[in-house]
Amino acid sequence: MSTGLQVAIDGPASAGKSTVAKLVAKKFGYIYCDTGAMYRAVTVAALQEGIAMDDTEKIADLAKQIKITFQPAEPEQRVFINGQEVTRDIRLPKVAKNVSAVAAIPAVRQEMTKQQRQIAAEGGIVMDGRDIGTTVLPNAPVKIFMVATAYERARRRYLENKQKGITTSSLEELQRAIELRDKKDSTRKVSPLTQASDAIRLDTTNLTIDEVVEKISEIIKKTEKHLA
Ligand code: CDP
Ligand code: CDP
After folding, report:
1. Which pLDDT tens digit goes with each residue over 60-108?
2. Ligand 2, atom 25, residue with closest C-alpha
3. Which atom of ligand 1 is nearest to the CA of 182?
4. CA angle, residues 164, 32, 131, in degrees to nearest 5
5. Which part of the chain is the Cytidylate kinase domain (predicted)?
6. Residue 18 C-alpha to ligand 2 middle, in angstroms?
7. Spatial distance between the Cα atoms of 188 and 199, rounded to a whole number of angstroms
């Protein structure tokens, strides 16, 4: 019996990838893997070690040494670096500001891609990120490219931070920071954020979380039928 499909969900910051990916995984009994959290964890580790953000060699070495693990939990999965919990640390503005630079280091991407392929090897997984459909799992039978306007994405992140009690900048500043990160992610040399040619584009600007989950579930069911 098949253990399930590989489902790749890519897109810019705050398009709704992780929220939806988590719910879809739960619905189908699949594993959920947040690859953004892995790049954020490398960034936290580098900051903790006091490594300069332009010291690409040291950051790459560090990425190879640390072990990033996840533990399912509600409302969000817990993240650990070598057993030390960093669930809250990875969401700090300082980390959001530096993560794109860390994620642009080729050796860091190589290491994370290797680990992500190992996690996804058995199938039955929903993996979200920027390069899952293009680089990490190019043969995934379901690929979604999730988008929403920058204003809507900043609004969502603003509300989320407020709810979580995370100190946040103004909505305008948040939108600027998101646009800057989108630009860095889309223009970097290695595995930039781009839609895979065989991915389905899903604009979530005017969709609720449930509506997006429903649309992706339909795509998975159709693909399962097609492959059966
Ligand atoms: O949740 P949010 O959309 O803010 O970002 P994330 O998914 O946590 O990813 C944080 C950062 O990690 C992104 O801005 C990218 O720079 C990087 N990333 C990446 O390069 N490749 C991935 N597969 C996932 C994330
Ligand atoms: O993972 P990504 O950065 O793409 O986005 P997310 O962290 O899943 O979603 C960002 C915020 O938008 C969360 O607070 C979600 O609850 C919210 N969201 C929404 O309001 N409507 C959607 N259709 C999807 C997400």
Report:
1. 999 999 999 998 888 788 999 999 999 999 999 899 999 999 999 999 9
2. 16
3. 14
4. 95
5. 7-221
6. 7
7. 20
